[in-house]
Specification:
This protein is 63% helix and 0% strand. It has helices at 2-12, 15-22, 39-59, 77-95, 102-129, 135-140. Helix 3 runs antiparallel to helix 5 (102-129). The structure holds nickel (II) ion (NI). Nickel (II) ion binds next to helix 3 and helix 5.
Length: 147
């Protein structure tokens, strides 16, 4: 099962980056409605969780949340794409070389759940904003593309 979780995470590791790459720059600052956060803030949480879970897996235990993106970075497409790409590589490196323990396997599952729940949220954002989904998203989640 662990190998399957790793395979699923590796397959979807570029999904969030592909989504940001597909959007016009100004869309990172957009909210779904007045009480929602922005697309960029969604990505801040994805990057921070990925970086923090990667560090936790490496340390064999949770060592706290931190994110390399600042609040103002979340409106910069280049910075968000860069942080997503760097966190993808770092995750792949760490999960490819650690000795697996129960703690590490639980962290791996937590990360998979976190990535997936943000994909669910972002699907709603894109429908509301009327943008096309990257092909990876449309295929994985059987999405109808907006007109
Ligand atoms: Ni989150």
């Amino acid at each position: 099962l662990r190998q399957k979780v790793i395979a699923h995470l590796t397959t979807m590791s570029g999904f969030h980056r592909e989504l940001v790459e597909s959007l016009p720059d100004q869309e990172l600052g957009r909210k779904l409605y007045d009480r929602s956060n922005t697309v960029g803030a969604q990505m801040w949480c994805v990057v921070g969780a990925r970086e923090s879970y990667t560090a936790a897996i490496e340390s064999d235990g949770w060592i706290g949340f931190s994110c390399s993106l600042t609040g103002s970075d979340t409106t910069s497409k280049d910075r968000v794409v860069g942080a997503l790409a760097a966190s993808e590589s770092r995750l792949e490196d760490v999960i490819g070389r650690v000795e697996w323990t129960d703690t590490r396997e639980n962290l791996l599952l937590d990360l998979l759940e976190h990535e997936t729940q943000h994909q669910g949220q972002l699907i709603r954002y894109l429908y509301a904003m009327g943008h096309q989904f990257p092909e990876s998203w449309a295929a994985r989640w059987a999405l109808d593309q907006p007109e």
